[in-house]
Design goal:
This protein has two domains: about 280 residues, Mur-like, catalytic domain (UDP-N-acetylmuramoyl-L-alanine:D-glutamate ligase); about 140 residues, Alpha-Beta Complex (Protein-Tyrosine Phosphatase, Chain A), CATH 3.90.190. By secondary structure, the chain is an alpha/beta fold. The chain contains 15 helices and 19 strands. The chain starts with 5 loop residues before the first helix and ends with a helix. The longest helix is centred in the middle third of the chain and has 16 residues.
Length: about 425
């Protein structure tokens, strides 16, 4: 077979699915029918189900890498992807080969039922792949919400909730309590739960859901904790305690306090799997955490000036980025290269970062993903918002994202910082040219 391109893969996925629906709450009917058509592959391997508002992908990746270091064959399904849809299908750190993914699409795409959405189809592809590859464990990131997300056909050994904040309010509800109730829908009767939620009202919702389900809950700050956190621009370290255990000076290659929290939740999850028969050593924990790299998440791709890529695209994610910038680069002037997807609350998201910016270069992107062709908010709209609410920020418009990055390099001095953010699609588009 001739070499299969990324375009051919995304085109074929689009042909056998329909775009996911923005602003519409899903049901589990279509994915359930597709799973039954395939013989329910999601029930043929043990799994960990990871939900929450932000940090899901990082937490899932930490869990997977710890278990890989422990000697297990682990499948990892996350979203969104940066450059290739193959990034969503990973086994022991390796993305699925293009030819294998195309063969899988042809197999799973032979159905006489109603076409699934793009995300339902890719979820089915992951479940079928992990079954065929006979993984010891599948680590599955929730797509959106929890209760009615396509991944929620799983019957996992362990459910993980990273945190809860305001995101996708048009679907999940306009309070953190409503969103928490939806996300807690991944908790399964009689199973195990690890939670990193911190708001008292949300903790109560999670505790009540666990009580009703007979699920065993481990809670950040009560049953496990991270202490003595040390942050730098090259790594992070922390101590972890739980149930009489103490791991001193665990080191992360990822940056920011939010990643320490994600890693702590992941570590608690890995240790909880001991109850399900998995064996996890301290060396596996240390190596798995250290060897986890998250492209496009607080990723420094060059220095003099420092250029940092982060796909933050919602208020909670941007708040974490802003906190990390304050902690790691206090007082440094920042040039933002910014683009935001249409359909997102770009005003609230931008307001988290804007107080740190000395200048902003507003740009564009084009991307094809779960929802079809995605377009950026017009840069002129972003510039007008910044000028009205943050008049001290110098605003420039450069429609081409590659030219926007080059402009940032020219006008940012070596002691300053460039931050490319606002959309994972923007980061995914420019990143290949920045990492060589």
């Amino acid at each position: 077979m001739n070499e299969i391109t990324e375009h051919a893969l995304t085109k074929r996925i689009a042909e056998v699915s329909v775009p996911s629906r923005l602003g519409i709450k899903n049901t589990l009917g279509p994915i359930t029918a597709l799973m039954e058509h395939l013989g329910n592959p999601e029930r043929k391997f043990p799994s960990v189900h990871v939900g929450g508002t932000s940090g899901k992908g990082s937490t899932a990746t930490y869990i997977a890498n710890i278990l890989v270091e422990a000697g297990y064959r682990v499948g990892l399904f996350t979203k969104p992807h940066l450059s290739s849809v193959r990034e969503r299908f990973v086994i022991n750190g390796r993305t699925i080969p293009a030819i294998e993914l195309m063969e899988l699409i042809e197999h799973v795409g032979r159905y006489e039922i109603e076409k699934p959405t793009w995300f339902e189809l890719t979820t089915a592809l992951a479940f079928q792949l992990f079954h065929e590859r006979d993984v010891d464990l599948g680590v599955i990131e929730v797509g959106l919400g929890g209760t009615y997300d396509a991944t929620n056909v799983l019957l996992p050994e362990l459910s993980v909730l990273t945190n809860v904040g305001l995101d996708h309010t048009e679907i999940l509800g306009d309070t953190v309590e409503m969103i928490a109730a939806d996300k807690a829908g991944i908790i399964k009767p009689g199973k195990r739960v690890v939670s990193g939620v911190t708001q008292p009202s949300v903790i109560e919702i999670v505790e009540n859901q666990c009580w009703r389900s007979g699920a065993q809950l481990k809670l950040l700050g009560r049953d496990f904790a991270c202490k003595n956190v040390v942050l730098s621009t090259s790594n992070s370290s922390f101590d972890f305690t739980t149930s009489g255990l103490l791991y001193n000076e665990l080191v992360l290659s990822t940056l920011g306090y939010h990643q320490v929290l994600n890693a702590s939740v992941a570590l608690s999850a890995a240790l909880t799997l001991l109850d399900a028969g998995f064996q996890v050593t301290e060396s596996a924990i240390r190596d798995g955490l250290l060897q986890t790299h998250m492209p496009g998440r607080m990723e420094i791709v060059s220095r003099d000036p420092i250029m940092l890529l982060d796909g933050a695209h919602s208020p909670p994610k941007m708040a974490s980025l802003a906190e990390a910038l304050r902690n790691l680069f206090p007082g440094r002037r920042i040039t933002g290269v910014l683009a935001f997807s249409q359909g997102h609350d770009f005003s609230a998201t931008l307001s988290e970062l804007a107080p740190l910016l000395s200048r902003a270069i507003l740009t564009n992107f084009n991307a094809i993903n779960d929802y079809g062709s995605r377009q950026a908010q017009p840069p002129e709209t972003l510039a007008a918002l910044l000028s009205e609410n943050f008049p001290k920020i110098e605003c420039l418009i450069e429609q081409d994202p590659f030219n926007a990055v080059e402009l940032a390099k020219r006008i940012t001095s070596p002691e300053e910082l460039i931050c490319v953010t606002g959309s994972i699609f923007l980061v995914g588009q420019v990143r290949p040219t920045l990492i060589g």
